[in-house]
Design brief:
Blueprint (H helix, E strand, L loop, with lengths): L1 E10 L5 H18 L2 E7 L2 E9 H12 L4 E12 L10 E4 L5 H7 L12 H13 L8
Helix pairs in contact: 3-4
The chain binds flavin mononucleotide (FMN).
Amino acid sequence: MLVRLMYASRSADTLSPEDLTVIVKTSRAHNPGAGVTGVLCCSGGIFLQVLEGGRSAVNALYLRIAADPRHRDVELLTYEEIEERRFTGWSMGHVNLARVNPALLLKYSECAVLDPYAVSGAASMALFSELVATASVAGQG
Ligand SMILES: Cc1cc2nc3c(=O)[nH]c(=O)nc-3n(C[C@H](O)[C@H](O)[C@H](O)COP(=O)(O)O)c2cc1C
C-alpha cells in the first residue's frame, strides 16, 4: 500500500541555509530505512515537500515533520493512494528554486514565486513533476 502526500509550510523566521542543509541531511539519513522517497523544495521562506512510501511510514513521518518547530502553518495539500512512486530516485531530493527558470513557476501560477497556498494541489504536483523532468532536483540517492 503506497501513498503520496504533499504539504506546504512556512519556514521559521530564524531558519538559516545551514539549518536547511541539516534538514536535508537528516532526511537522507532517515528516509531510506523507512522506505520513504520524495523531494523538498524551499524558496522565499516557503517549503513544499512530497513524501511517498508505505502508508504507515508516510503518515508517521508527516506527523513528526508537522510538529517540527523549524516551520509553521503546515498545510496538507494532497494525499493519494498510488500504484507506483514518481520520485524513486531520491531519499529526499532538494530543489533550489533560485536556479529554476521562472517560466516554469509562471506556467502554474499567477506570478513567478512559489506560493502553494495560492494554487491548487494539482498545480503544485504538476510543478514537482516538471522539476523532476527538467532535472532540477539535486541529491540523487
Ligand atoms: C521542512 C522539513 C522537512 C523535513 N523532512 C524530513 C524528512 O523527509 N525525513 C525526516 O526524517 N525528517 C524530516 N524533517 C525533520 C523531522 O521534522 C525530524 O526533525 C527528524 O525526522 C528527526 O526526528 P526525531 O528527532 O524525532 O528523531 C523535516 C523537517 C522540516 C522542517
